[in-house]
Design a protein that fits this description.
single chain, alpha/beta, 6-stranded mixed beta sheet, 5-stranded mixed beta sheet, 14% strand, globular
Length: 418
């Protein structure tokens, strides 16, 4: 398919399996050949983005790498409403203070993947609160609402599925797709943005934006483009683990834990993940995909290191790989393992093993720790824990730290502090 495409952008995303739907592929191909401005919106529902969002960030990265101009749209306005897509009930509404705090926390993540500035293809970051919070309700209904078909909105999966299941949808959620469509119009007027991108679950919202732009007099054709929603080979949602979301902020998930997430990918996911989440050439990815038997682990290490290097830097990625090598292949305790503080006074008083694993973020609760004890999956300094009421103390320190392990692949250190 790529041989029929002229634009480097569409050739790049097609070659990496990131093209799903497009409102006008031929028209976008022509526009992208001359350089196009495109955006993706990110609502700020948490203090960090997660791996599921990374598919969208990499979409913007591919656009910039091929001469396009990316816009990161922060949803300071739409986060106050809540996207109903994929939800069975209304999202919890966040306070203005929490939204602002989340926005400040996630901004730096984009700078790891995109170059920001005033150049032709430099990325820019804007917040839709700049225009959404200034809207007059009656004027908005007359100028924008009259172009939105309720009949069509009722056919959108985000609405239809909730109604079919007799799950309530609030009026505020129903308005989300109107606001998202209007974002596209504003970005076109302000920045000449002609392309909105997203996951396949956003197709209906994206098409609404393209249609609204046409109805509101945008004098250039607008385009919508989606990529497939990525799931693991076993069908699990991308970026979800038994311990929770795979966060992109280092203060919520250490570089070592992030590296381990990719290292533990299923064999069948190696090729697709290398294409989407790394910048490796497709020829090299094909070579890694062809590896068999024990050599597949080498491909997983490449995936883990390359993906971690993009987010946390090459130095942190190499440290994580060295820590894994020392822990798994040499049986040593590496200083690069995730480290959590514990005071000497806590250890002197006796500290429950279950609580220690919670502190090290290896489990989410004491109850979960106890279940792992029963299964023989917890170890302290490589010794299996057999008593759910066991404790650790100063005598367990080895070079000032205690090694905790969950199974064979999850490790952390408790480091003693005054």
């Amino acid at each position: 398919m790529t041989e029929h495409l002229r634009s480097d952008f569409l050739r790049a995303i097609t070659g990496r399996g990131q093209l799903h739907q497009c409102t006008d592929l031929e028209g976008l191909d022509k526009a992208a050949s001359a350089g196009i401005t495109g955006y993706i919106g990110f609502d700020m529902t948490a203090p960090s983005l997660h791996v599921g969002n990374l598919t969208q960030i990499m979409f913007l990265r591919r656009l910039q790498q091929t001469g396009g101009k990316p816009i990161v749209l922060l949803g300071g306005g739409t986060t106050r409403v809540g996207d109903p897509s994929g939800k069975e009930e209304m999202r919890q509404l966040l306070s203005e203070e929490q939204i602002a705090k989340n926005a400040a926390s996630i901004r730096g993540c984009f700078e790891k993947f995109l170059n920001f500035g005033a150049g032709k293809s430099d990325a820019i970051m804007v917040d839709n609160s700049e225009w959404l919070l200034k809207l007059n309700y009656i004027d908005f209904l007359r100028d924008v609402g009259r172009h939105m078909s309720v009949n069509r909105m009722l056919t959108m999966d985000s609405v239809k599925l909730r109604l079919e299941r007799e799950q309530p949808m609030s009026f505020i959620e129903f308005n989300y797709m109107v606001l998202q469509a209007y974002d596209f119009v504003e970005l076109y007027r302000r920045y000449g943005c002609r392309l909105q991108m997203g996951g396949s679950d956003q197709w209906g919202n994206i098409v609404n934006g393209v249609d609204l732009g046409r109805r509101m007099g945008c004098d250039s054709e607008l385009f919508g483009l989606t990529q497939p929603l990525i799931t693991t080979a076993s069908g699990a949602k991308m970026g979800k683990t038994a311990q929770g979301a795979v966060w992109l902020n280092a203060d919520m998930l250490s570089p070592y834990e992030y590296w381990q997430y990719w290292r533990n990918a299923e064999d069948a996911d190696i090729g697709p993940f290398l294409k989407v989440f790394t910048d490796l050439p497709l020829v090299e990815i094909a070579r890694l995909e062809a590896l068999q038997g024990a050599e597949i682990n080498d491909a997983k290490k490449v995936l883990a290191t390359e993906a971690t290097a993009l987010l946390h830097g090459r130095g942190e990625a190499n440290k994580a790989e060295e820590a894994a090598h020392a822990t798994f292949e040499q049986g040593a305790v590496s200083e690069n393992l995730p480290t959590f503080p514990i005071t000497y006074s806590e250890l002197s008083a006796g500290f429950r093993v279950a609580a220690a694993f919670v502190r090290a973020r290896l489990v989410s609760s004491n109850g979960e720790a106890k279940r792992h004890v029963a299964a023989g999956a917890l170890r302290v300094n490589d010794a299996i824990v057999t008593d759910e009421n066991a404790g650790i103390n100063v005598g367990d320190l080895v070079d000032g730290a205690i090694k905790l392990s969950l199974g064979k692949k999850k490790h952390a250190l408790l480091k003693a502090t005054p």
